[in-house]
Amino acid sequence: MRTPMVAGNWKMNKGLYETRDLIREMYPVLHAVEGVEVVICPPFVGLGVAKREVEASTIKLGAQNMHWADSGAFTGEISPTMLKELCEYVILGHSERRAMFGETDETVNKKVLAALAHGLKPIVCVGETLEENQSGITAEVVSRQVRADLEGLNQEQAEQVVIAYEPVWAIGTGLAATPEGANAVHKDVIRPILRDMFGETIGDGMRILYGGSVNPGNAAELFGQSDIDGGLIGGASLKAESFIALVKAAM
Ligand code: PEP
Fold first, then answer.
1. What are the pLDDT digits (tens) for 179-236?
2. Which residues neighbour 208 within 8 Å (Cβ) at sequence distance 6 or greater?
3. What are the residue ranges spanned by the domains of the chain?
4. CA of 232 to the centre of ligand 1 (A)
5. Is 5-249 in CATH node 2.60.120.10?
6. First-to-last C-alpha distance (Å) of the chain
7. Is there a catalytic annotation at residue 166?
8. 118 is catalytic
9. Burial of 180 (0-12, 13-18, 19+ CB in 10 A)
């Protein structure tokens, strides 16, 4: 009942021409995929060219961050009104933004509400650090993040949201969570909170992606779990061959 999603977070990689070229490499295989929602999230500067490249296809675009205000004196920032002309999704609360750019659950929540107010669909990232994991407080940390990041959303808004569970210790390390371990967080921690906040039907319908060192070797097993509805992919989304393999693994 939930359509799997495979979303590529390119992070601060690929300029304008590289964005065009990488999309053109993937395009022959990915332009008309059915049964999996394929999302590409290039840096802001690539979104315009990416839009032109994918507009005749089923490939969707996302941004990697956003300010919550519509416009104003926020040097260097990008607003939801700007993004909605370019893309459908926006990644919010990525752990790199939380760790390096001071994002908190409070600012993530403001961004989630602003994105939804403008018709953008948030991909909200949550996940525990290595220290938190080793202290046995994963459930506590992830629960707090999900509740705070989605505070104040109504059911209709919640339906537009995708959650990405990304244990910080698994991002870019080559050390993915085990499929069973990740699924346990999705199924026993995040899903019950979504059901509690938005009701059983909406909570069961919301997608929860896994992110953290997903690669063509481990994707099928991860995506095969009951509550893992696809992946948010960093490193392996930067090569056409591996990203295509991940989309196929989610079919
Ligand atoms: C990410 O940054 O969202 C991510 C999951 O990265 P990687 O796939 O490289 O671990």
1. 999 999 999 999 999 999 999 999 999 999 999 999 999 999 999 999 999 999 999 9
2. 162, 163, 164, 165, 186, 190, 191, 194, 227, 228, 229
3. 5-249
4. 7
5. no
6. 13
7. yes
8. no
9. exposed
Closest residue (by CA) to atom 2 of ligand 1? 234
Ligand 1 atom at minimal distance to the Cα of residue 236: 8
Cα of 53 vs centre of ligand 1, distance in Å, is 24
Q: Which residue's CA is minimally distant from atom 7 of ligand 1?
A: 234
In ligand 1, the atom with minimum distance to the C-alpha of 214 is: 8
Q: Is the pTM of this model over 0.90?
A: yes
The rounded distance, in Å, linking the Cα atoms of 70 and 78 is 9
Which residues pair with residue 164 across a beta bridge? 125, 209
Kindly state if the Cβ of 203 falls inside 6 Å of ligand 1: no
Q: Give the whole-angstrom CA distance, residue 36 versus residue 52.
A: 21
